[in-house]
Amino acid sequence: MGREVSESCVESLLTEMVSSYCNQFYANKPELAARRIEAIGYDVGHRLSERYTMERPRFSDHLEAIKFICKDFWSELFKKQIDNLKTNHRGTFVLQDNRFRWLSRMSIDPSPENTGLSQDSSVALAENKATQATNMYLYFPCGIIRGALSNLGIPCAVSADISNLPACSFVVRIKA
Amino acid sequence: MGPERNPKTTRLLGLFWITRNPRLLRAGLGHNYAIQSIEQRGSSQIFNFTVLSSRKQIKGSMPPVAPRSGDAIFANVERVNAELFTLTYGAIVRQLLTDLEEVEEVNKQLDQMGYNIGIRLVDEFLAKSNVSRCVDFKETADVIAKVGFKMFLGVTASVTNWDADGTSCSFVLEDNPLVDFVELPDTCQGLYYCNILSGVIRGALEMVSMKTEVTWVRDMLRGDDAFELQVKLLKQVPEEYPYKDDE
Amino acid sequence: MIVCVAVVGHQNNPLYIQSFTEADDALKLHHIVHCSLDVVDERVNNPKKAGPTLNETFLGLLYPTENYKVYGYLTNTKVKFILVTTDLDVRDADVRNFFRRFHAAYVDAVSNPFHVPGKKITSRTFAERVSTIVKSFGLSSAG
């Protein structure tokens, strides 16, 4: 068993990183903030893939590498595997995590406790802001996946889909 | 409707630590509560709540809750691979160096991020540790070293170098997951790589009414034999709540 | 005795090369490492002769010269490790053990946030660890 830290450490760090880039450095340039957050994720994924592929045979094709991300890699990060993997057999893979840990611990769902906060409109505004924050936050795991795959020789683009919360789907498009 | 003014309620209020997120509001001493309403007053939010049960009331049927050791808490919290934490922190520091350019600015930013984390983590710390409100700086420093570091980072700090009047001490860390794999390049010699830690301590202490100044004395990344953070108590406000009463 | 070890990136860019001989034969050793890269590529692209397991990271003996034996290892991230030894009687298990430990040291070195992926490894810690691993090569106690 390797060294561990409390999950709160990682969550606090991510929250603070996202907030620094979105609210402080690039408050009016969300696309720049997104790019930085993705870059940090990419760096982490790149280095993690180096660690987590130690002592295993090389992957013979893209599917094997993607399966590694779904199983071993995801388990190292979240102590669970990706729940569902789909592909169109033309270079697009959809990795679905039914309960994505980094979202399920975040307070983005509207809750009755908040309704006393103030008028309906400002609640809607707050929710809208929360959704934006969530989208920003997701650039980080997208970057991790892209960094890991690209280090395994698979250049790709990765996006996230949260239309079915708390499920989260990561769409990997491999570049030809 | 403001918070009630009778002495009992006020005393209880002192045991609550209020975070920015109302749903994270927690009781420090094992009180159960229900939020009745939240109102905005100027820049402050007032939380009105009812205490459902407190430790005092259930004392007869249950043994008093003893403060838990750092090891016991760490064994029970959700944990993740330190590698993820270490590499994420490293990537953030490197990205900040690229974006802010000046090492001094990066030091400041890391401290600020740590401060923001500290004022939130104190909440979880009090809730999970069953630590009753620390009376003095000495006791507080001990608890942070033995319980705080352990329950979050999985390592223990020691407290040394007390000054004569007990307002300044050092936390010494011989093991620190933030710096696994890290070697500072010559171009970053002015960087306090772990500066986020000093911010966390400053932020957490401020939430328990202790204004402090935190500075690095030793740094293993600069060739020292340990990490040493000096914490100086500037001001202690025993009954200050994180919001203002404006009447 | 190990006389040279090298780490080579996926575009055959040298990331680390260190010789361990008193003699002034660095150039010759670098040449041997360079030549071995073609053998690695050939092994990987024509896996039929690649040894017991397909896609195993350990590539085995790449080629023997008159004075040296050259072994290779290819990570999942397409980074090559090359080992040059003067020992004539080398146990396969020792070489595997060497690469396993070398790989672990490499992974820690590239986990340093200040190491830029694809750039030369300048870490002192890595150099020290490699030197320790090299010295203990072939000793039965090596873990």
Under the CATH scheme, the architecture of the largest domain in chain B is 2-Layer Sandwich
Strand order of the largest sheet of chain C: 2-1-5-4-3
**Span from first to last CA of chain C?**
18 Å
Specify the helix fraction band of chain B: 25-40%
CATH topology of the largest domain in chain B: Muramoyl-pentapeptide Carboxypeptidase, domain 2
The topology string of helices and strands of chain C comes to: EEHEEEHH
Number of domains of chain C: 1
Radius of gyration of CA atoms of chain B, rounded to a whole number: 20 Å
Please identify, by name, the CATH architecture of chain C.
2-Layer Sandwich
Task: Compute the number of strand runs of chain B.
Answer: 9
Radius of gyration of chain C: 14 Å
Please mark out the parts of chain B with pLDDT under 50 across 5 or more consecutive residues, or reply none: 1-32, 51-64
Report the portion of residues of chain B in β strands: 15-25%
Q: Notable features of this structure?
A:
heterotrimer, B: 247 residues, alpha+beta, Muramoyl-pentapeptide Carboxypeptidase, domain 2, 2 domains, two-stranded antiparallel ribbon, 9 strands, 22% strand, disordered N terminus, C: 143 residues, Beta-Lactamase, five-stranded antiparallel beta sheet
What does the secondary structure layout of this molecule look like, with pairings?
The complex is a heterotrimer of chains A (176), B (247) and C (143).
Chain A: E1 4-6, H1 7-25, H2 30-52, H3 62-78, E2 84-87, E3 92-97, H4 101-104, H5 120-151, E4 156-161, E5 168-174
Helix pairs in contact in A: 1-2, 1-5, 2-5
Chain B: H1 7-13, E1 16-17, E2 26-27, E3 32-41, E4 44-53, H2 55-58, H3 70-76, E5 79-81, H4 82-100, H5 103-129, H6 137-153, E6 158-160, E7 168-173, H7 195-207, E8 210-218, E9 227-236
Antiparallel strand pairs in B: 1-2, 3-4, 6-7, 7-9, 8-9
Helix pairs in contact in B: 3-6, 4-5, 5-7
Chain C: E1 2-8, E2 14-19, H1 26-45, E3 58-64, E4 69-74, E5 80-85, H2 92-110, H3 124-135
Antiparallel strand pairs in C: 1-2, 1-5, 3-4, 4-5
